[in-house]
Amino acid sequence: MAGEPNEPLYTDLADRSPAGFNAVGRGRLPGLLGVEVVSTEASALRARLDVTQPLMAPNGFLHAATVIALADTLCGYGTVVNLPEGAAGFTTVELKSNFLGTVREGGIECLATPLHLGGTTHVWDAVVDAEGTGRRLAVFRCTQLVLWPR
Fold it and tell me: Domain 10-147 belongs to what topology?
């Protein structure tokens, strides 16, 4: 079961490459959604996912929660890549999305970039586009609280 005491979490990752994050996402929400991390540079992370039937809303369009999950996952992974030395982890304290469009098929891609990387908080911006066309689907901002050992 995910989250067992001896199972590594992303904050424990020695391998912070796309492969490392993809591996740790298996069996958790990113893996269940099909999130594929493609790059993990400290200043910009990229990920994508295929639009599949289980990710659709009952109205026949991509569910907004799918877009939020992709963007929030990538911003969280960006926080992990940029955690200050000695930090114990992080948690999302605020997020906001503006939806500009949707899709019914294909794939979506996300680019996350840091706006602020402090010792207490990180603020991340992300854009989600339709894969192949580059049509903007959503913009996203989240604030992460950096957690320190007690």
Answer: Thiol Ester Dehydrase; Chain A (3.10.129)
